Amino acid sequence: RTLLSPPFLYINVKDYCYDDPQCDPYSWGDSFPSCHPLLDLHHSPINLDLHMSRNSSLGPLRLEGFDSVQSGLWTLRNDGHSVLLQVGAGMAVSGGGLPDVYHTIQLHFHWGGPASNGSEHTVDGRRYPMEMHVVSMKSIHPNVSVALDDPTGLSVLGFFIDVVYADNLHFGQISQKLSSVAYKGQSTKIKPFPLMSLLPRNNMSQYYRYHGSLTTPPCSQAVLWTLFEVPIYISWSQMAQFTSQIFSTEEDAEQVTPLHNNYRHIHPTFSRVTWASREARLVRGWAQRPLASAGTLMMLHVLVLTGHLSAGL
Ligand SMILES: *[C@@H]1O[C@H](CO)[C@@H](O)[C@H](O)[C@H]1NC(C)=O
Ligand SMILES: *[C@@H]1O[C@H](CO)[C@@H](O)[C@H](O)[C@H]1NC(C)=O
Ligand SMILES: *[C@@H]1O[C@H](CO)[C@@H](O)[C@H](O)[C@H]1NC(C)=O
Ligand SMILES: *[C@@H]1O[C@H](CO)[C@@H](O)[C@H](O)[C@H]1NC(C)=O
Ligand SMILES: [Zn+2]
Predict the structure, then answer these.
(1) Which of 26, 178, 245, 262 lies 20 to 30 Å from 39 when distance is taken between CA atoms?
(2) What sections of the sequence does the record tag as coiled-coil (predicted)?
(3) Would you say residue 292 has pLDDT above 70?
């Protein structure tokens, strides 16, 4: 089974799951000792409380290649635990207090179920509907297995995903392809698009930083987390593509099981510090949820127009 994207590495890990006491996150430690949350270890995810300290040296990140269209094709894949988009070479993350340049290798999602939210990190105890992780590896490392032995070997950019009334046209480039990867092991090719089009581009310097782990086996404590304050907004139906169309089982399985609630439980921070970036606002986003994000205004106009029409009829 592959944990992170080829060609960097295939890590063979035994099976793990989210929905069965035999193999769910609380029992991962039985098969993967490094997933045991012992005292003073740096596990993820955590709850972010908004009383954290500010570190004014945490300025904007440098996101190389995120604004351009990469060559080749990307691969969208259902690995039974998530949906992963494996991107080619050409994108890198640095700055913002990161100690090195990190090459981006893949992004993937965590979600809930028909009636539950599924972000991994929580903010003041509240869970967002979904979370997206953009995974990058420190450029000095030849492969992910070496990077996992370095406490700052990986950088993960985490984006909360919240739900609004209108579709996010850019996000459609992923959500419309999900039906091709409904079952575990299935993959499909995607034409590259500027990754930045998915991200909250006006608010990229508002983030939180802490040192943690992978949230899937082998749970290596090798991740510098950057969690963005402002979420990505998608529609309810785009989110439902994840909760209703993705299965953790293979197509020919006797019993198909939807993949739901693929998040690890919250871990204590112990002695760790979580920093807020220079421009983070440290206010809860819940109250200021917009009706629609910029990319969706067109759709909103259509809705408003339809409303006017039916009101007139
Ligand atoms: C602020 O962040 C930088 C970069 O991560 C780090 O080197 C520095 O120690 C932090 N400042 C404090 C006061 O810890
Ligand atoms: C789940 O997400 C919705 C939409 O953002 C939010 O209104 C709700 O409070 C969240 N529920 C929990 C339990 O965090
Ligand atoms: C990763 O790189 C190290 C150092 O070059 C090498 O010893 C190891 O075999 C590589 N692992 C894989 C799985 O390619
Ligand atoms: C996002 O950034 C814009 C431009 O700096 C700012 O006006 C807006 O308040 C920010 N949004 C949030 C929710 O912080
Ligand atoms: Zn993840």
Answers:
(1) 262
(2) none
(3) no
And the tokens for 71? Answer: 């060559």
* Lookup: tokens for 66: 């995120």
Q: What is the dihedral of CA 12, 13, 19, 22, to 10 degrees?
A: 140
| Ligand 3 first shell, C-beta below 6 A | 9, 142-143, 145-146
pLDDT of residue 38: 81
Whether residue 81 lies in the annotated active site: yes
Domains parsed from the chain with CATH numbers: 2-306 (3.10.200.10)
- Whether the model clears a pTM of 0.85, i.e. scores above it, the answer is yes
Is residue 177 lining ligand 4, measured as CB closer than 6 Å? no
Q: Rounded to an integer, what distance in angstroms lies between the CA atom of residue 313 and that of residue 303?
A: 15
Q: What element of type H or E holds 231?
A: strand 223-235
Q: Which residues pair with 161 in a beta bridge?
A: 130, 232
Question: How much of the chain exceeds pLDDT 90, in percent?
Answer: 79
Encode pLDDT of 4-31 as tens digits: 443 334 455 568 999 999 899 999 998 8
Confirm if 244 and 260 have CB atoms less than 8 A apart. Answer: no
DSSP 251-306: TT-SS--B-----PPP---TT---EEPTT-----GGGG--SS-GGGHHHHHHHHHH
Region of residue 187 (left: phi > 0; alpha: psi -120 to 50; beta: else): beta
Element containing residue 308 per DSSP (H, E): helix 297-312
Answer yes or no: is the C-beta of 56 below 6 A from any ligand 1 atom: no
